[in-house]
Amino acid sequence: MAGAGAAARLTNMLRFALSAALVVLAATLGLAPAAADRGRLALGASIAKANCSRCHAIGRTGASANPKAPPFRYLARRYPLSNLEEALGEGIVVGHEGPEMPQFRFDAQQIEALLAYLASIQR
Ligand code: HEC
């Protein structure tokens, strides 16, 4: 039946047009960047866990393993988090003095991720 075939084609075209419109809408609303943000936060969290958590509390709750190390969620109360960017880039973190001072090597992407993660947990 020619009529049914045409109707099916029309339905398919509408479906295609609708899904194309949804893709454009999603891009406009910034859903893709949101996924990128989640990836960056996850990277930042894993860096903090691997390098910092044996002393600092790195989450939204909980106490630091080393009582002298401030929980990360309160860091922004002391100074803007962006102050840490340069220190992290140079492999030092301000305030780490004496024999306990760990050395870090982070690239720009890791630093960005760590700072984004720190920003996400501040209280
Ligand atoms: C071996 C233990 C240890 C590790 C590992 C460690 N820290 Fe610390 N950190 C400390 C201690 C102790 C202090 C508090 C020092 C002080 O106030 O004199 C501190 C303080 C800080 C401060 C606050 C400095 C200030 O001026 O207020 C920041 C920021 C910081 N650490 C970031 C980090 C980051 C980021 C990591 C992981 C990449 C990390 N630390 C890993 C022990 C550690």
- Tell me the total number of β-strands: 0
What CATH first level would be assigned?
Answer: Mainly Alpha
Tell the overall outline. Answer: elongated
Helix content: 55-70%
Write the CATH architecture name.
Orthogonal Bundle
From the helix content, strand content and strand pairing, which structural class follows? mainly alpha
Plain-language structure description:
The protein contains 4 helices and no strands. It is mainly alpha-helical and 123 residues long. It has one domain: Cytochrome c-like domain (Cytochrome Bc1 Complex, Chain D, domain 2). α2 crosses α4. The longest helix has 28 residues. It is elongated. Heme C (HEC) binds next to loops. Keywords: Heme, Iron, Metal-binding. It comes from Methylocystis iwaonis. This is Cytochrome c domain-containing protein.
Task: Give a short synopsis of this structure.
Pfam families: Cytochrom_C. With 123 residues, the chain is an all-alpha fold.
Topology:
Blueprint (H helix, E strand, L loop, with lengths): L1 H28 L1 H21 L32 H6 L18 H14 L2
Tag the structure with descriptive keywords.
about 120 residues, mainly alpha, Cytochrome Bc1 Complex, Chain D, domain 2, about 55% helix, binds heme C
